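Q: Please design a sequence for this.
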């Protein structure tokens, strides 16, 4: 069983969904310190006139003194309206504007409470459903795991993977410097990395910007094209990428 463990990001880039698709168990990692101004409460879409623009969800308690699962959306209604407003300039250009705005609205409506984690999980769910990706998340703060022995950032993934009984752990290749392979192998877990090439596509009247939120990807591409892009991701063993 392959585990994927990531912090809950707000409508993350497409590679995040390639990671979900290739994981047998997906853990929403929400038990560590919250860091303000990260991908957890904001992401990027195209700007109406140049480059890109932030879509941000304001929090009532944004602070590095709280845990991720304690983060609360300030005003769900206003956040919903503001986020949808940041997509309005796509209306007359992007072929899937209406569908994507409906997905965003459904994410906010399906969150159920003011929890940022609930909102981000809801957003992941609506995107995965749209793309035909199985999504059955495990919320780390709800699992009752004893992780008290973890004393460094690279130690969380092997500890959680072992607690779940995983024999493989998959991480984005950009985070490879965080890990020591022996921390996985001594637990009988193979460390793997996912490489996801940049997906380029036409953005009528705008300059293409790489690695924006999945919202931008879905604005311009139909499901089959996005599925084809997801299929370009490749899994590599740690031995291929880490120093011996």
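A: Design:
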């Amino acid at each position: 069983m392959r585990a994927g463990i990531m912090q809950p990001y707000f409508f993350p880039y497409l590679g995040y969904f390639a990671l979900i698709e290739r994981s047998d168990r997906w853990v929403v990692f929400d038990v560590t310190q919250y860091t303000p101004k990260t991908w957890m409460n904001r992401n990027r879409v195209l700007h109406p006139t140049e480059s890109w623009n932030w879509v941000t969800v304001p929090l009532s308690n944004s602070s590095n003194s709280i845990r991720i699962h304690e983060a609360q959306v300030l005003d769900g209604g206003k956040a919903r309206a503001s986020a949808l407003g940041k997509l309005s300039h796509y209306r007359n250009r992007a072929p899937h504007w209406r569908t994507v705005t409906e997905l965003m609205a459904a994410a906010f409506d399906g969150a159920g409470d003011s929890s940022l984690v609930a909102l981000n999980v809801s957003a992941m769910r609506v995107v995965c459903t749209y793309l035909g990706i199985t999504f059955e998340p495990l919320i780390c703060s709800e699992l009752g795991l004893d992780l008290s022995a973890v004393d460094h950032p690279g130690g969380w993934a092997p500890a959680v993977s072992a607690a779940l009984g995983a024999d493989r752990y998959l991480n984005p290749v950009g985070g490879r410097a965080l890990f020591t392979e022996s921390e996985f192998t001594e637990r009988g877990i193979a460390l793997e990395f996912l490489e996801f090439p940049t997906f380029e596509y036409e953005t009528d009247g705008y300059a293409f910007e790489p690695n924006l939120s999945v919202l931008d990807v879905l604005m311009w591409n139909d499901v089959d094209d996005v599925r084809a892009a997801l299929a370009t991701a490749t899994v590599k063993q740690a031995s291929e990428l880490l120093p011996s």
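Q: Thanks. Anything notable?
A: Strands lie at 2-6, 25-28, 42-46, 52-56, 137-139, 168-172, 190-195, 234-237. The CA atoms of residues 86 and 243 lie 43 Å apart.
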